[in-house]
TrEMBL record:
The keyword DNA-binding applies. SUPFAM superfamilies: C-terminal effector domain of the bipartite response regulators. It comes from Atlantibacter subterraneus. One of its GO terms (molecular function) is DNA binding. Residues 151-178 form the HTH luxR-type domain. Gene3D superfamilies: Winged helix-like DNA-binding domain superfamily/Winged helix DNA-binding domain. This is DNA-binding response regulator. One of its GO terms (biological process) is regulation of DNA-templated transcription. Keywords: DNA-binding. InterPro entries: Sig_transdc_resp-reg_C-effctor, Tscrpt_reg_LuxR_C, WH-like_DNA-bd_sf. The keyword Cell wall biogenesis/degradation does not apply.
Length: 206
C-alpha cells in the first residue's frame, strides 16, 4: 500500500504514520510512504493526504490528473469546510479532516472512506480537466499580490501599478473572496505559499 503524506509538521506526520499503520497493518496491508505529490508518486498512490492551508483547496495540482482510484484526504487547521464549494475536478472527492479532530474520529473517517473506495473503485472515472472549477488569479491580481508579498503599502502599490487605492483594495478583497480567505494573515500565508510554488513570483517587479 502506497500512501503519500504531504505534511511538513514532523510530529503530525509521525502521528499519522502510526495511526495509518495501526489501521491498515491489521487489515493485512504493508504501508510505504512518500512525502511529495508528483506524477510518479501519484500514479501508484492508494491514499493521498495533503496539508491544505487556507485557499489551497481551490488550486490546480496538475499531478493529481494522474491519480488512479485512490483515497484523498485534505488536512485543514480549523473547521472550515472547503468542500462546500466547487473544487478542482481531480480533487472533488477529497475528504476534509480538521487537525483538531480527535484520533478516534480520524480513524473512523479513514476506515469508512477506505471501505467505500473499495466498493466504488470500479465506478471511479479518471480525472479530467474539461470544465474544471479550480480558481486562478487574474494578471492584475497577481501583480497586486506580488507587491503585497514585497511588503508594499496600498499607496505604494497604487502608484507602482498606476491604479487608485480603491482599485488596489478591490483586487485584494476579490482575491480573498475567491479563495475564501478570512483575514490578512490568511491572505499573506496563502500568497507566500504561492510564491514558493512559483505561481506568482515571475510577476514580482513587473
Amino acid at each position: 500500500m502506497h500512501i503519500i503524506i504531504n505534511e511538513n509538521d514532523a510530529l503530525f506526520y509521525s502521528g499519522l504514520t502510526h495511526l495509518l499503520n495501526d489501521i491498515f497493518c491489521h487489515q493485512g496491508y504493508t504501508p510505504c510512504y512518500s512525502r511529495e505529490i508528483n506524477k510518479s508518486t501519484v500514479e501508484t498512490a492508494d491514499i493521498i493526504i495533503q496539508s491544505l492551508r487556507p485557499g489551497e483547496a481551490f488550486l490546480c495540482y496538475p499531478a493529481l490528473y494522474y491519480r488512479k482510484p485512490s483515497l484523498m484526504i485534505g488536512l485543514v487547521d480549523d473547521n472550515d469546510r472547503a468542500d462546500h464549494y466547487p473544487l478542482p475536478l481531480c480533487a472533488n472527492d477529497r475528504i476534509i479532516i480538521s487537525r483538531k479532530a480527535g484520533t478516534e474520529n480520524i480513524r473512523r473517517t479513514l476506515k469508512q472512506a477506505w471501505e467505500k473506495l473499495q466498493t466504488d473503485a470500479e465506478k471511479t472515472r479518471k480525472p479530467h480537466c474539461y470544465g474544471c472549477k479550480h480558481r486562478t488569479m487574474t494578471s492584475q491580481q497577481k501583480r497586486v499580490a506580488a507587491s503585497f508579498i514585497e511588503g508594499c503599502s496600498v499607496r505604494h502599490i497604487a502608484g507602482k501599478l498606476a491604479l487608485n487605492s480603491k482599485s488596489v483594495f478591490a483586487h485584494k478583497h476579490s482575491l480573498m473572496r475567491k479563495f475564501q480567505l478570512k483575514n490578512d494573515h490568511q491572505l499573506m500565508m496563502f500568497l507566500q505559499i504561492q510564491r514558493v510554488k512559483q505561481s506568482i513570483i515571475k510577476h514580482v517587479g513587473e
